[in-house]
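User: My instructor asked us to take a sequence, write out its structure as tokens, and then describe one feature of it. I'm not sure where to start. Here is the sequence I was given:
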Amino acid sequence: MRTGQAETVLLAYFPPAPDLAVSLANRLGAIPSARLEAVPVPDVDWVKRFREGFEPFACGSFWVVPSWSDPGPVPPGQRLLVVDPGRAFGTGTHETTRLCLRALEEQNPAPSPRDRLLDVGTGSGILAVAAALLGWQKVTGVDIDPEAIESAELHARLNRVRAAFVLGNGGAPFRRRSFSLVLANIAAPLLMARREEIGSLVAPDGTIVLSGLLTADVDEVSAVYADAGPIETRVDGEWAALRIRVRP
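Assistant: Let's start with the prediction itself. The structure tokens for your sequence are:
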């Protein structure tokens, strides 16, 4: 596809389907300059390749170690967090995950036995597991993807913590105002589209932590949540997280 003198190349993967090329060509017909070209897909075990380069690393107060590696001595002052990278998002390597982990560490006051935490779009469950390691006793993660729930439950077992994981669509399975802290590390459009849903889950004087947004999205997302309470912004590279102290 040409824009002026530049050429834009879009590489997309599709599951095998009858007449796929014909269907795609018909859809691209409205763009006269577009060309469709099939390319071979290498037979690569991407999970295995990722694992080959995954080494233990520090993420705030956590010492993140892959499940197949000998953790060795955990550095002083850090907590062991075992991960098993798979199809679900969340290993601690991405900026948005790091921002959420940092927000959990900075939570003040510390959680009481009665406080409840919900991780919306839990993915691998790494944030829910980290919360349990930080002392949260009532932790729940929710995701619409069954593979994510399996991954999250595996991470709870690997780290020997208790957390409940629910297969569901966002906040739909839960009572209003029932969580002291709600984490939502999802894309900015979803954060904005689900503002009422996410806000309804937090108890008075609770906290919302939003991530998954680029720094360019901060103003727009902040405007949508402005009526919830004071907003603090944290940045890591081109990514950002918002911490919202919910008004009573």
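For the description part of your assignment, you could build on this observation: The longest helix spans residues 146-158. Try explaining in your own words what that tells you about the chain.
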